[in-house]
Amino acid sequence: GDQPASRPGSRSSPENMGKRVRASPNRPRAKETSLTQRAHHKAAKPRVLCVDDEPFVLDGIATNLRRSYDVTTATDPDEALRLLASNVSDPFAVILSDMRMPGMSGAAFLERARHITPESVRLLLTGYADIEDTIKAVNDGKIYQYISKPCPAKALVGIFSEAMVEFRTREAETAIIKGTLRGSVRVLMQI
Predict the structure, then answer these.
(1) Is 142 left (phi over 0), alpha (psi -120 to 50) or beta?
(2) φ and ψ at 23, to 5 degrees?
(3) What is the pLDDT of residue 12?
(4) How many other β-carbons are positioned within 10 Å of the β-carbon of residue 50?
(5) At 66, is the secondary structure helix, strand, or coil?
(6) pTM of the model
(7) Is it the case that residue 11 has pLDDT exceeding 60?
């Protein structure tokens, strides 16, 4: 038919049928990303843990945070505590918990979480205005911030950004303290 004739040497020319033809050096190639590069990119995202007994709430939170964070969710506080305990060497940067959950309150969960990973920044999410419980939770669990439900997506992302600054500050302070302690021990050993 009416199909244009192929140029000799082109990808569709008869002599190249069935052969792999290399891309022209002048033609931009699609960006290739290796599995290692993708794994590194994913690992570069700060890890956060969100705990709420309502799966649809967790889905909404995760949807709003996934672009910037590696989000892990749990619908059960005991499950979340097991996750924390199994990741002590690589702690979650931020832990968000709902206040009212069956079996364990968010306040109790965050207080227990503080003992497992004290460097993690803890956030409390609640739709209830029980000020006494909230004050107790903030004080006992050393909670960084209280968030009321519903929380607009933009505000949630902003709060997590602030929490990440706090986490990185804590990491830096811990590194300085460890370095100072090591140096002090070396000096004492030389005496």
Answers:
(1) left
(2) -65, 145
(3) 43
(4) 26
(5) coil
(6) 0.67
(7) no
What are 73-115's pLDDT values in tens digits?
Answer: 999 999 999 999 998 888 999 999 999 899 999 989 999 999 9
* Rg of the chain over all Cα atoms, to the nearest angstrom: 26
Quote the pLDDT of residue 110.
93
Using the structure block, give the residue that is written with the tokens 């000096």: 187
124 exposure class (CB count in 10 Å sphere: 0-12, 13-18, 19+): buried
Which structure tokens are listed for 121?
């920044």
**Of 104, 103, 139, which is closest to residue 122 (Cα–Cα)?**
139
CA dihedral (39, 42, 46, 47) positive or negative: negative
Task: Identify whether the C-beta of residue 64 lies closer than 8 Å to the C-beta of residue 156.
Answer: yes
pLDDT at 57: 92
